[in-house]
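Q: Could you write out the predicted structure for this multi-component system? I'm mainly interested in how the pieces pack against one another.
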Amino acid sequence: MKRTVITLIASAMLPALCATAQNMTPFQSGKAWGYKDAGGNIIVEAAYAAASLAADGYGLVAVQEGNALKWGVVGQDGRTVIEPVYDYIDLYSEGMVAVYRGPVYSSDEGLYMSGGQWGYIDLASPAEEFKVIFDIVGPFTDSVAWVNCVRTESRRQRRTMPIVDKKGKPVGEEIIFGVSASFTMNDLYLPGSDGSVTVPDGAWVLMNRKGNALTSTDSPYQAVGEFKDGLAWVKRNGRFGFVNIHGEEVIPVIYSMVQDAPGSRPGSLLLHPESGAVRWVVNDSGQRAWLNEKGETVIGFTDFEGKVSVFDTVDENMWDY
Amino acid sequence: MRKILTLTLISALVFLSCGTAAQAQNPDSAMQYRRSSLYSFMISHPDLKMDDEIVGAFMAIETPDKYNNHDLSVKCVTAASKGDDLTRQIENWFERNDVAKRLVSKWFLRSKETGGFDPSLVMERGLYGASAMDVETAAQSKRGIDALADKGYEMISNTFVIVNDITYVDHEKNADVATGILSIIGGIAAAATGDENNLVTGLSTLGAMVSSMIAGFTVKTTSYLYQLDWNDDVANTFYDLYYYDKPGTDSLSMALFAADTALAARKAAYEADKSTFRLKYVGKYVARSAKPVLRGLYNPEDVFRKVCARAIDNNVMELQKEFDQFKVKVPLFSTEPLMARIGMKEGITAKSKFEVLVPVYDDATGKVRYNRRGVIRPVAGKIWDNRYMASEEQAVGSELTATTFEVVSGMNFTPGMLIREIK
């Protein structure tokens, strides 16, 4: 019986998962899904082909349309916030969701989107849909998001978590709707069969909630990272630097490697706000320096590779006190 | 006169530590209490598997909230050896790098350029500035420190260093996914099937490559605990021989400072001192992390961070149980019912017991001591699960914001009184 139920779960293409516990729980009636509140009262009738766990009072739901699923959003008050007309919806963050119109493909690695167009909808004013013009988009953080404005060969993955039984056998999957704290831009892309993720170069621009570009559209970045403590690494013409949430290149895009960029390795130093250093950078000679949020040097370029041995006497400059 | 001053100081301390009834209305103010200070760093082993992942996870972990962050800039030290007791190597590293002295420098926000000190961190962490004391005399100067009841003695002596030697446990040698040891519940599966007994498990990660390496990620952590040796002799040496206020940043102040040979001599003497400031070994604890509950985790970094954070929290908790000086004292923020923001992360179980303490300034020693006002214990079923990412895991008790207690003995408890676990 259990196996039957599990199989049903798998066949129903199960739902999404979100970052926090909710007073809005999916339930199944027959093959259809809806939501109940903590008291077991139905708040959304079981009328959908799939439903996610809720994020901040919102749930992702899908209806069957031919062989495809069309996705929308419902609220914990039972209302339909976004009609289920999109081919995919994802990246719930700061009240914004990313919406997709276009083909959805299936491969051995999972479902992915490619060749369509992405946009955003603010759940507080869902009627004001952004123009769906982007090849791929990131989540909103501190009211800004990265958008890729050129066509690439990107294979934007439907981010899922497999459900396995106790023997490790996949029996279903959950679609990730919300964005976790440790989200990385790599999470957007479909991993290859060996588990590696190839992030194709694009033309990335930082955008605010109103759709205004905060970085130059004439010289966009070929690759970007997620924001941490107000800074994100960026790459242009093979060089790295950092921008802040206002789109300012506070650490110029001139370095061969920078902290947090793909290929960088964690070091021994965690410099605190007291020291002023916020990121390290590497020059063409392989030397490393620590810079403050204005791009000014806190610790000048040194051959120190970033790792302190237990047998070392650490350079005085490396200490904040 | 001295008695009047003493009484003033006592009342100031009681005011600071016990709070007022008004604090019950404002839990945040009741949470302002003196914490111990902690510098934590890790030993990594670049020659072992998953070392970069562990270092990355450790670097993202914040200082436990029951302690003040007293981190220095070096947060990770590598060692080639593994499995050995690293006490000697760690202590040699402390000595070679003047770590104890740097911790003192941080307490007084020492300027590396001028060598001058600033007591504002002592004032801030000691909550002196908010007290009934004469704020004017407690201004940011040496005179301010002198005016404090114990010159910050208690707080500075409660400065600890915890060194976490974290290594990946190669689970491929152990049972993992294939043998079904995962303790994960697929949230939606449980919701759909009523499977409350983990018959269906959900594996969090990114696609088919989800690997048992991530799902079964566990670490072995050896935590070495040290305490700053801040006794009367050290404190007197520091205040008498080395302390001077930071000069102003205007040109006149800097010129006067540059011409002051006495201050230059103090600066040089402090920098040359290799013997006054020490760290004393307290003890260590070794544990292997529990199998990760993966519900609510979306990518490998989440898994690494959760496992490492919980491993460290667990060792901190065990060290607290073992060594009294490392135990945290947390204020009651409510008395009807008795509640405090302490929970499973600090090792609370239904069998735990806590003493309720009132800090009293001891005129004879010039230091603060704690008098027991009573004993309380947690109410079963009302223990807060405040472990790292417990709410994402939807763990029982994670929906609470504090633990509720009941009285074993004593009475007249007030918000702001401190509680400390007893054996």
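A: Regarding packing and overall arrangement: Residues 20-33+329-423 of chain B form one domain.
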